[in-house]
Write the structure tokens for this entry.
Amino acid sequence: MLTHKALPKFSRTEDEDHLHHGEVKVAILASRALTRVALRTVMADAPGLRIVAEATTPYQLNHAVAARRPHTLLLDDADPAWDTAEVLRGLREDTGRRMGVVILADAGALDDALTYLCEGADGVVLNDGAPAEVATAVRAVAEGHAVVPPPLARRLVDLLGVRMPAMPARDQLDTLTTREQEIFELVIKGMSNQEVADTLVLSERTIKFHVSNLLRKLGVRNRTQAIVYARDRRLLRSTAS
């Protein structure tokens, strides 16, 4: 069962008239043919949903969105052909219109899914779920809601403070060493310890040591909470400026 949360309403433009009359235009980003066929079948079986574009690369997607003006994008996160976070950032930079984004995510990658929500995704559907959940999520997101599966909803509740300790004081970031701050910036971009090690030309063991120290100093328990903390800090900074 999916969890829905209302999002702020956005103004309707002329190309959203189809949505107003019950039809949701859907674009798909998936390089693998089998995935596209499966999603095509799901959409065909769901009344009121119509695929208007299929892209196999982010470049194709940009052109498809501009030409076909879909209400919702279905993005396959398990596809090795792109970095999902980078795709979301590119979409977010296009402020011409509002398009909902649903991520098809692996059940074992919930931390990544949280990052995608922070990057602007509106919904997450686990790729081992029922096909009907995909259709439900697409329509809900098109109508201005957020959709997350129960395991991810549990994570979100934890991060909102039910189980999570109070957010660190604003000056705790200043307690990090220069090296820890450098590693922290890479961690909150979603890099693994090995990727950070490769970037900084250090051993993975050294990175693990620094990550453990910086999490302790910030008062958070894991990378997910560190990402939320970093986002909160940046919002506070932008408000102060």
In short: The CA atoms of residues 66 and 96 lie 10 Å apart.
